[in-house]
Write a structure and sequence with these properties.
Helix content: 40-55%
Number of strands: 13
Structural class: alpha+beta
Strand content: 5-15%
Radius of gyration: 30 Å
Number of helices: 21
Distance between the termini: 79 Å
Length: about 625
């Protein structure tokens, strides 16, 4: 295989020592970075509802992660974060070994730093903060994707390599889809590695490698899709729209998504969330170093009139690096653009090693930069976890106060009285605290900066984690109540006001924060006026109909009369809110501008009519 000795050094360690070094340094760097969260429970964001077991197997299946329940069944339904963390680090160690084996990294110093990048990074921070109990599951998916790349590169028996790689990649996709980017970047970087280390112009091995990788992607994608359809049909489930990969069929969004790959790559490369000035400077220096070497190689090939096709291919690979790094975001059209999809980014730290072996002084400089970066990753992880522990404790204190206040309200019976939650605890003014020393890490937490509870379901999950019985109504039930009680809900002050908890019609209503409730139209009975046969000019500018409500905006008038606008659906009537429409007045040369209306109606309108009520003339006009 071409390029197999490019990164080999004198006094290189053997494969057994290579594996042991990966294992040792992964646990050293991994525990330095994540021991705080592995050995301390402080659930935040989605880890709250995962701990509450709201994320059932059925939910995993609808997300397309249909082998995730199988993995959890095999490893056992453990919830101790230290054990989950140990498994995750073990998978990372094996992945690091496979990466070192693929690229023939047999320097003890390089192995230690590569292991550091894969065990301490923003991806792992986000994973441990937001999905604590899923860390090992995701890292097993990453291991499968890495194994798929290893099989394509190292397995000389083409059929067996393709088969093993396809199975491993399909398993990775069926546990967590985002790690397919790891496989793509392994092949991509290895092709680049092979081209720049090629002494002859024979590219047959490279062509074969690319062909094998494409076949593996096709087989794995088809197998994954077929498996998902079978599983969904077996359990009679529908695919969840979250991270829906069917957007790949949206051809019109391709140019924008492609351009965004470059914007996101260069922004993240120069705007690190941790120690941004030093980190970004190191990234820029590394980029300049790599680009300078690529320019030298290309110029040398052109001057010596070597194979122009290979030269163009090298330029092409460099130009397309941001796209391949963001391949998962491109496929999903950046639906969920966050650090969880950037694990492949760490593979790029291997690239500078391709050029520094021949110059020992440069190797020392690169290694020094890498030590700084890994140390900053470790430091950042501990700062983020410290902040989230403070956030968790603060949230627990606030929730306890709310629960105490509900128990002081007459008529409330804990665990029996239905509880209606209005607002978002994370938006409460009590949480608008500015921890300046933690400001750089807000973007690495995937959640509200100062609240462990980040959306509706996490409030109920948080309470259950606290072992408290509260009968919280679902968000769908609350949405159905808002149209009925929106005026009463609007008058309730937000926590920590004393009367933020009120009993309304046998339900405990808790207002967690100020919130703009929709102003629903009032239902009314038509007055006893005659319906006059007259022309009504009208236009609906906006119409939005959902399962529980309808929104209309437009204008309507009869001659120069000032009328109330009524929306009718069968025998039900709602009075709209009037708006000034000087554009309509000018267009139709009217005496006033009272023709506009908006209506938010607490019902799904399959069909509707407009009535204009003229109280001055005591007449009703209906549109034909």
């Amino acid at each position: 295989m071409i390029g197999t000795t490019f990164l080999s050094e004198r006094n290189a360690v053997g494969r057994r020592e290579q594996f042991l070094l990966c294992l040792f340094w992964t646990f050293v760097w991994g525990l330095a970075a994540h021991a705080f969260i592995f050995f301390n429970l402080h659930y935040n964001h989605d880890s709250i509802i995962i701990a509450d077991n709201i994320y059932s197997n059925a939910f995993d299946l609808t997300l397309g992660r249909y082998l995730s329940p199988v993995y959890k069944f095999i490893r056992g339904y453990i919830s101790a974060t230290w054990l989950i963390g140990m498994l995750a680090l073990l998978y990372i160690a094996v992945s690091s070994f496979l990466i070192c084996d693929i690229f023939d990294i047999n320097s003890a110093a390089a192995i230690s730093l590569i292991s550091g990048f894969f065990s301490a990074n923003a991806n792992m921070i986000v994973l441990n903060v937001s999905y604590t109990t899923c860390c090992d599951t995701f890292m097993f998916s990453n291991l499968c994707a890495t194994l798929a790349g290893w099989c394509v590169v190292k397995e000389k028996r083409n059929f067996l390599g393709i088969l093993m790689s396809s199975v491993a990649l399909m398993i990775s996709l069926a546990i967590y889809q985002a790690y397919v980017g790891v496989f793509c970047l392994i092949v991509f970087v290895y092709v680049f590695y092979s081209l720049i280390s090629l002494k002859a112009d024979d590219v047959s091995d490279i062509s074969l490698l690319i062909g094998k990788a494409v076949v593996v992607l096709i087989i794995a994608a088809i197998s994954y899709k077929l498996g998902m359809k079978i599983v969904l049909q077996m359990y009679k489930l529908k695919q969840n729209n979250y991270l829906n990969w069917d957007v790949i069929c949206d051809i019109q969004s391709v140019p924008n998504a492609f351009a965004k790959c470059y914007n996101v790559f260069f922004y993240n490369y120069s705007h690190a969330p941790y120690h941004p000035r030093i980190t970004s400077l190191i990234h820029i220096l590394l980029l300049v170093f790599v680009m300078g070497n690529v320019f030298y190689i290309v110029l040398n090939r052109v001057c010596n009139k070597k194979n122009n096709l290979i030269t163009l291919f090298i330029i092409f690979l460099v130009a397309f690096t941001p796209f391949v790094v963001n391949i998962v975001n491109f496929i999903t059209r950046f639906q969920r653009n966050n650090e969880l999809t950037y694990v492949s980014f760490n593979l790029l730290y291997i690239v500078p090693l391709f050029f520094c072996i021949k110059w020992s002084f440069m190797k020392k400089i690169i290694y020094a930069m890498y030590v700084v970066l890994v140390f900053f990753n470790v430091s950042s992880a501990n700062q983020v976890y410290t902040k989230k522990k403070l956030v968790y404790d603060s949230t627990g204190h606030i929730v306890n106060r709310i629960l105490m206040m509900t128990n002081l309200v007459d008529g409330y019976v804990e665990g029996e009285t239905p509880v209606v939650l209005i607002g978002d605890l994370g938006r409460n003014k009590l949480f608008n605290k500015n921890y300046e020393e933690f400001n750089n890490f807000n973007s690495v937490t995937l959640s509200s900066p100062n609240s462990a509870i980040t959306y509706f379901s996490t409030f109920g999950g948080f309470i259950k984690v606290m072992n408290t019985r509260v009968n919280i109504l679902s968000s769908q039930d609350v949405d159905s109540l808002i149209p009925i009680y929106f005026e009463e809900f609007d008058k309730i002050p937000a926590f920590p006001a004393k009367d933020c908890c009120r009993m309304i019609d046998g339900k405990m209503v808790v207002k967690l924060s100020e919130v703009d409730l929709p102003k629903y139209c009032k239902e009314l009975t038509l007055p006893d006026y005659p319906i006059v046969d007259a022309d009504v000019n009208f236009c609906i500018d906006n119409e939005d109909v959902s399962a529980s409500s309808s929104y209309l905006r437009g204008w309507a008038y009869h001659e120069n009369d000032i009328c109330r606008v009524i929306v009718a659906d069968g025998e039900r009537y709602w009075e709209t809110n009037l708006e000034q429409r000087p554009d309509v007045q000018k267009a139709f040369d009217l005496d006033n501008d009272k023709q506009g209306f908006t209506a938010t109606i607490p019902a799904k309108l399959d069909g509707y009519s407009l009535y204009l009520i003229n109280d001055e003339k005591k007449e009703i006009y209906k549109n034909r």
